[in-house]
Amino acid sequence: MRKTTQFKQLLQSPRTEFILEAHNGISARIVEEAGFKGIWGSGLTISASLGVRDNNEASWTQVLDVVEFMSDVTSIPILLDADTGYGNFNNVRRLVRKLEQRHVAAMCIEDKLFPKTNSFIGEQQPLADVEEFAGKIKAAKDVQSDPDFCVVARVEALIAGWGLGEALRRADAYRRAGADAILIHSKIAEPDEVLAFAAEWQNECPLVIVPTMYHQTPTERFEEAGISLVIWANHLMRAAVLRMQEIARRIHDKRSIASVEGEIAPVRELFRLQNAAELKEAEARYLPARLQRPDVAEIAQQSPLPAPGATVQSTS
Ligand code: SPV
Ligand code: MG
């Protein structure tokens, strides 16, 4: 099934579905192997992995390069966090074409101003003009060539302190402009705002949430509220940062790698995640025997992941 169709089915599933953040090829593969049906290409964590701020400091083509690596090594759909769309309606049109070429199933755009700031930084961030933002959604829907490519419209009214009424007004305008789903974002520690929104919204189109700040909420409450898709938005990056800091300190302080060896992934696990076994098999098929590398028994024994492209369905 095409990745776009997989993602559309996630949005339209009668159950609450879950996707997890990834920020590069290896983390994307780890998300898929864990059993998730989709990947959140997080603006925050892609920026963080590049060592820059979540303020559009990474250019949109740099983000595209990262998401292409993620897409190439996975067979589940990616919802790319495309911030504000990196410009106006015209930039959004070009972005959609480039995402479709890379088999990215869906994008999320938010009604803030370029360059954006992460929603958890500061107060009362300025919001986009509703009609102008609706035009971006319409432009995206008009230009997509795959009918199942999805546009998720992210409402930042609660983040900016404009209240429930404004959030609903914006969400309705974006739904009418053609959005396939509404992401309602909140930064308070309780789920009250998004649950109040969901109660009023009455499932007019699928709802997506990002419970980073209201993380203690039992998942059943989201299910009862009819939330379609929950995004666990940054947890692999945060896990990796903590572990990398700890291991780096220990190696530095002990001037030795002896004590950490048993606590980190073996080198052969990196080979496995890179699908080294498939290359070995391909060499056997395509290289004359005299030019093949000496057998690396351990790699050859691993069952290879699918060949590049083998599981990635065309979106056209
Ligand atoms: C991201 O993961 O980049 C998001 C979610 O946009 S948030 O950080 O909550 O804004
Ligand atoms: Mg973001």
Concise synopsis of the structure shown:
The protein has 316 residues and is an alpha/beta fold. Helices cover 45% and strands 11% of the residues.
**What order do the SSEs take from the amino end to the carboxyl end, as H and E?**
HEHEHHEHEHEHEHEHEHHHH
CATH first level of the largest domain: which class? Alpha Beta
Largest sheet: 8 strands, parallel, barrel
The portion of residues forming beta strands comes to 5-15%
Order of strands across the main sheet: 1-2-3-4-5-6-7-8
Q: What is the 3D form? A: globular
> End-to-end span in angstroms?
12 Å
CATH fold node name of the largest domain: TIM Barrel
Overall average residue pLDDT: 94
| CATH 2nd-level architecture of the largest domain | Alpha-Beta Barrel
User: Number of folding domains?
Assistant: 2
Bound molecule types = sulfopyruvate, magnesium ion
The helix/strand class is alpha/beta
Count of distinct strands: 8
CATH homolog superfamily of the largest domain: Phosphoenolpyruvate-binding domains
Q: Percentage of helical residues?
A: 40-55%
Cα Rg: 21 Å
Runs with pLDDT <50, length 5+?
A: 311-316
Enumerate how many helices there are, as a single number: 13
